[in-house]
Write a structure and sequence with these properties.
The complex is a heterodimer of chains A (about 350) and B (about 260). Chain A is α/β, with parallel strands linked by helices and about 350 residues long. Chain A is built from ten helices and 15 strands. The chains are: A alpha/beta (about 350), B mainly alpha (about 260). Strand 3 of chain A pairs antiparallel with strand 2 of chain B.
């Protein structure tokens, strides 16, 4: 059974084929909170079924619960990743990523089970090298016994969202740490790059502009913000809208610059947008309006809404994991076909030898 | 600075030699030089030509002279060669009028030939050495980083890392992905509670689409095509049998007609 894994700055999500016609997503926040250990605390965590690890006098609460406890205890959470890659300041938290990956990915059903993992493309506006991150994540899942392959986040969006367009189009993943963009033609990437700005960048900018804590900004952005509403000048929501607009303009500007460096084929390119930071209400409309003003050197047919905005889960963060799963299942099928051909050739050869 | 000075002197001497040689030729033409010409004309012509050729070779030697350690030997060879050739010319000028006979002719010829050989041989040797040294200097001075693009380096690193993952090439330990002995104690929920999963209705048709986009082949389960193929196959078989039957009948008819 093939699997797709999205290792994001904020979330680690695994997608696998569910029962019947369904996909099962396992998700954990890529964060942890350190607390002082004690019998009372441990009993409380155990009874509340909260994920944690203990090392000496320190308890590390993992995943979503880390955020809840952070608000309760007013303590800053630790995030092993920053700007889409393993944070250079948090290298000691690699075991935490390992734990979360093990948790969501689970053990393989057979040795060498195929798993596709999303990794960011090389950023155009930062000297950050993604190789160390990619290879570390690959090594962590290989340790579990998977036959691991890496895939660009943007291409995973193309696989997930642009199947109806022969996998031709632009896949954009607006994540927390990074924005990944891939322009693909018939499932082949023409341009693939990332921008070291995402949801976290908006939070940081708004926080420094308004003086409100980053955690509070994140919360407002995720629950109490919409592009279609009018906000007062000086309000947090107004600042969020302003920086969202700046991010979109920046993404489109870089896309235009990159496209001018290549000669894309004469075809219609729809745009698919995914990622946690594209969840804000009205984001698509805003993006569509900005892209129509941008005059890109390719023919943009439409801005496609994320598949899951129409389904039950209504969350574009699953798109990347789904794209990875599609890539993994495609490879699994291709390998099965190859095996069948090899078997039938061997049988034919045996028959011929017998005659 | 020193090399610049040598090059300056070298080119000056070379040009002087060239002018002397051309003057000699010009003089010979002017005086219609022949075997029976006045000895002073012959001495002037060949003296100028001999000194000119020596200067030309000395100039070349100065221009491509070597630094230490070869430089010391090379300079000595150059000086000896030049002096020998000049001695030859001077001796020729002295003896030509009344002693141009054996063995004096041999002394002149030997001295001049030896000098020219030494100068030209030294120039050739220096030129070859200079060529070899220039190439090695280029290789040494070449910036190793500019020889590779960032992509090349990244590809190389990726290749090495990929090799590290295959157990046959490197041990995983050497590349720092050794399983560390973790002293984390997992909590109860981490050990006992299974990971929650969200199931979403999705037939994932994209897998099929991607397969056909990548391979260019389309897999179909079409009953109509299967049935038509079977019917076509049966018809073709029937047609083959009919042809065979017709052929057999024709042969039979021919045999019967022959019998009749």
């Amino acid at each position: 059974m093939a699997k797709g894994l999205d290792v994001g700055t904020m979330n680690i999500i695994c997608a696998e084929k569910g029962k019947g016609d369904s996909i099962a997503f396992a998700q954990q926040r890529n964060a942890f909170l350190e607390m002082e250990a004690g019998d009372l605390a441990q009993n409380m965590l155990d009874s509340a079924k909260i994920l944690y690890t203990q090392k000496g006098d320190t308890i590390s609460v993992l995943g979503e619960d880390a955020f809840k406890f952070s608000n309760v205890f007013n303590k800053a959470i630790r995030r092993p990743m920053h700007q889409g890659i393993i944070s250079p300041d948090e290298k000691e938290s690699i075991p935490m990523i390992k734990l979360i990956i093990e948790r969501v990915l689970g053990a393989p059903q057979k040795e060498g089970e195929i798993a596709y993992i999303s990794v960011p493309a090389a950023p155009v506006d930062s000297k950050v090298n993604v190789l160390y991150h990619s290879k570390t994540v690959e090594a962590l899942s290989k340790r579990l016994g998977y036959d691991t392959q890496l895939i660009d986040e943007g291409l995973a969006v193309v696989f997930s969202e642009l199947g109806d367009f022969n996998f031709t189009g632009i896949g954009i993943s607006v994540g927390a740490g990074m924005t990944n963009i891939t322009v693909a033609y018939l499932a082949t990437p023409i341009v693939s790059f990332s921008i070291a700005r995402g949801g976290d960048w908006i939070d940081e900018q708004v926080s420094s502009a308004t003086g409100v804590a980053i955690e509070r900004i994140t919360s407002i952005k995720e629950t109490d913000f919409s592009f279609s509403s009018d906000y007062e000048i000086g309000s947090v929501q107004g600042a969020i809208a302003l920086y969202y607009d700046a991010l979109i303009t920046y993404i489109i500007g870089n896309l235009k610059k990159k496209l001018s460096e290549v000669a894309p084929p004469d075809a219609e390119f729809p745009i698919a947008i995914a990622g946690g930071s594209s969840r804000a209400k009205g984001f698509m409309e805003m993006f569509e309006s900005r892209i129509s003003e941008a005059n890109l050197p390719i023919n943009i047919s439409k801005v496609k809404k994320n598949k899951y905005t129409l389904s039950d889960s209504k969350d574009p963060i699953y798109s990347i994991a789904r794209g990875c799963l599609i890539a993994a299942m495609t490879r699994e099928d291709a390998e099965a076909v190859e095996e069948e051909i090899e078997e039938s050739t061997a049988k034919t050869q045996k028959k011929a030898a017998a005659v | 600075m020193e090399s610049k000075l040598r090059y300056y002197f070298g080119s000056m001497v070379f040009l002087s030699g060239l002018i002397l040689s051309i003057s000699a030729i010009g003089f010979a033409i002017m005086v219609h030089l022949r075997r029976t010409s006045d000895p002073s004309e012959i001495i002037t012509t060949y003296g100028l030509l001999g000194v000119g050729l020596s200067f030309i070779l000395l100039g070349i030697n100065l221009m491509i002279s070597q630094r230490r350690p070869y430089g010391v030997h090379s300079n000595w060879v150059m000086i000896i060669g030049f002096l020998s050739s000049i001695f030859g010319v001077i001796y020729f000028a002295i003896i030509f009028s009344d002693k141009w006979v054996y063995p004096y002719v041999t002394y002149v010829s030997f001295a001049y030939a030896a000098g020219i050989c030494l100068l030209s041989g030294n120039a050739f040797g220096n030129a070859v050495l200079k060529l070899i040294e220039e190439r090695s200097r280029q290789l040494l001075e070449e910036d190793p980083l500019s020889a590779y693009t960032e992509e090349d380096i990244e590809r190389e690193v990726e290749k090495t890392l990929n090799e590290s993952f295959s157990k046959t090439n490197f041990s995983s330990f050497s590349m720092g992905i050794k399983d560390e002995v973790s002293d984390f104690v997992p909590g109860k929920a981490l050990r006992e509670v299974a990971q929650a999963k969200i199931e979403v209705k999705d037939s994932i048709r994209e897998v099929e689409y991607l397969q056909s986009t990548m391979s260019g082949k389309v897999k179909v389960n079409d009953y109509g095509i299967d049935l038509t193929s079977k019917m076509l196959s049966a018809t073709m078989k029937q047609s083959e049998e009919t042809k065979k039957q017709n052929f057999t009948d024709m042969i039979k008819n021919k045999v019967e007609s022959i019998r009749r």
